[in-house]
Target: GGDEF domain-containing protein
Amino acid sequence: MLKKKQSFHDLRRNLLLVVLPILFLSALFSIVLGNRVFLFDVYIELFFACTFMLGWFATLVNRRMKYLEIIILFGLYTYHVVSVTNVVRRHRGIEGAIDFDSYIVWLPLILIWTFAIWRKKVAIGVSLFLLIGTIIPGVYYMNELNQSFLESFAQLILSMIVYILVLIYSFKIVKAHAEVEIMRRQLRIDPLTQIGNRFQVDEWLQSFLNEKKEDDYSIIFFDIDHFKKINDQFGHSVGDEVLREFTQVVQNELRNNEYFGRWGGEEFMIILRGSECVAYTLAENLRQAIESFRFTGVNRVTASFGVSEFIQGDTAHSLLLRVDKRLYVSKENGRNRVTGKMEE
Model:
């Protein structure tokens, strides 16, 4: 659960780091290129520009954004209500309509932000509070406003209602898709080690086999030596910790383009781009790193490796059969060793 929250937090932060500069530039362009009748409209957009820039800078330097987001939103809400009230008061007894384009343009962004940082029920409540705050000045001064102005004001209110309704149902759809994506990822992640499980490794393997490229691909199949004895002697909780630490040791030696997953039990697999020589070198580095690491509760652990490159015409079955035989050779020859084509 904590990882999901952290992931969502990082996603939201990255989104703000991209979106806020765009909104800042949009506000600046609107100020420079827009043809505003009232100077107050320029102040509105200048306020938005400064707020977006301040929000971006604060997001960049501070990862704890909860209170920052609330403060910025509260400022936007307050400024929106005050500015609408000012426009209404300024047009009492004046004939003609008013263009609420500035408000209609920025309102969706404010409301989207609202729904992005709060739970749905809270976001709906806060949005309704903003809606009521927008309606009050129009109702209060209704008798002093002309028909054209009231029609423009009604369009602003209706647009807010539409935005809120659209966001409510849009976020339901987004939430449903997000839940499906989380479930899809969980089906491919080993819960103990937090790396790809056998289902995920199968997908990676099939993807490599289906690629129509002439690059070399190789596979490393390995397992922990005498792992059953570890479980029998020290207990499954120690065995689980060994698996977690073993995974971390391996990950520390890998690059981003090497695919590492748990095949099952104490068996693991790495798929990488490169010849068997490259894979053999990596496997030997892993063997040494594992041998030199001191594992919690058991101290020393070793691993045996089988290595093979993809051969033209290979299927998943033929490739796995070959690399499994090489792992078996490593076991038969004393364990804690790497077996490739040359050692068979």
